[in-house]
């Protein structure tokens, strides 16, 4: 495998090239405990609320080009990946400073020996906080919300409200994850390696998506404002990012579902148009990139896992 590829363009090229200042950061409370070397704030606090300018350094992850050892939190992500986007948006929205390591999954960087040392599951997202490495987006989000004491609504301290978030996340892993990513495999990723998913599988997936949306709307949203209650939580973020995957390839998920459409608007309004645009621009341009053939060609080493993923489409 050519693990020596340097990610300078492709899926990560829309990202800001170097440092990016966020100001002011919407932080509710400073963290109780900070790891010794964490570059917490780069700017100045002023006033009671302490306007803090925080930085997120953006650096492509590559196996051969050395980068300065990170002083604090590192997030290994790819914005084509729905769980990666949830982590990215959460960290950005909460002004959590991190080094962004973009792992080009189309080029197969996640299959390299070097990335294996970081995550033997060979998937993104991954969090690295000093020597502590954590995989699984929901675990990462919970870790970040606890470590940085983000506003309580994200991951409520109230037992029952928190249990509602976990109730959703459990169902999400069963019924949303794995289902909503399929259209992207059908329309973009399969064709990249010359594979066409059979029409009956596509149809079955459409039915599964419809069924899941019905449950999402009736059981989880119900007459509430958000999926796990009256305030936005990690559940909403995870759901929104997964739903963006079929939306990006033209599925009109919200058509004829006004309650779900209003929920999406509320979540996006809460996150802010700028952050949504930043996080979604890559995925929303995927069809265009596929049509223009500007997506990288996956190296043959990643074919087996791509073929396996496609074969697993029910
Ligand atoms: N359950 C994991 C899923 C992680 C995952 O499946 N990541 C995908 C991108 S969305 C990946 O890295 N795939 C690469 C591969 O499987 O080869 C989470 O929520 O973090």
From TrEMBL:
Report if keyword Cytoplasm is assigned.
Answer: yes
State where it is primarily located: cytoplasm
| GO terms classed as biological process | glutathione metabolic process
PROSITE patterns according to UniProt: GST_CTER, GST_NTER
Instruction: Report the GO molecular function annotations.
Output: glutathione transferase activity
What sequence ranges are listed for the domain GST C-terminal? Answer: 158-294
Q: What are the Polar residues biased-composition ranges? A: 1-11
Quote the Gene3D superfamilies the UniProt record gives: 1.20.1050.10, Glutaredoxin
| Annotated localization | Cytoplasm, Cytosol
**Record protein name field:** glutathione transferase
| Top-level taxonomy | Eukaryota, Metazoa, Chordata, Craniata, Vertebrata
């Amino acid at each position: 495998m050519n693990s020596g590829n340097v990610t300078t363009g492709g899926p990560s090229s829309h990202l800001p090239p170097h440092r990016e200042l966020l100001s002011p950061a919407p932080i509710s409370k400073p963290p109780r405990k900070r790891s010794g070397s964490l570059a917490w704030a780069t700017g100045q606090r002023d006033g009671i609320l302490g306007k803090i300018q925080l930085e997120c350094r953006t650096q492509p992850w590559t196996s051969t080009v050395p980068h300065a050892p990170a002083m604090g939190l590192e997030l290994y992500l790819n914005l084509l990946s729905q769980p990666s986007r949830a982590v990215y948006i959460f960290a950005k929205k909460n002004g959590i400073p991190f080094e962004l390591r973009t792992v080009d999954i189309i080029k197969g960087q996640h299959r390299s020996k070097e990335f294996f040392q970081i995550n033997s599951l060979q998937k993104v997202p991954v969090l690295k906080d000093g020597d502590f490495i954590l995989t699984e987006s929901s675990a990462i989000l919970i870790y970040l919300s606890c470590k940085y004491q983000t506003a309580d609504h994200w991951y409520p301290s109230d037992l029952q409200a928190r249990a509602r978030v976990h109730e959703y996340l459990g169902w999400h892993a069963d019924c949303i994850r794995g289902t909503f990513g399929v259209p992207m495999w059908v329309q973009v990723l399969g064709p990249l390696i010359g594979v066409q998913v059979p029409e009956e599988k596509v149809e079955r997936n459409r039915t599964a998506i419809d069924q899941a949306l019905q449950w999402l709307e009736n059981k989880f949203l119900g007459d509430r404002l958000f999926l796990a209650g009256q305030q936005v939580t990690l559940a909403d973020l995870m759901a929104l990012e997964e739903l963006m995957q079929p939306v990006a390839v033209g599925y009109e998920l919200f058509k004829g579902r006004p309650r779900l459409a209003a929920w999406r608007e509320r979540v996006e309004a809460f996150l802010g148009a700028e952050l949504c645009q930043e996080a979604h621009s890559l995925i929303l341009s995927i069809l265009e990139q596929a049509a223009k053939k500007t997506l990288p060609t996956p190296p043959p080493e990643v074919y087996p896992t791509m073929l396996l993923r496609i074969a697993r489409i029910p």
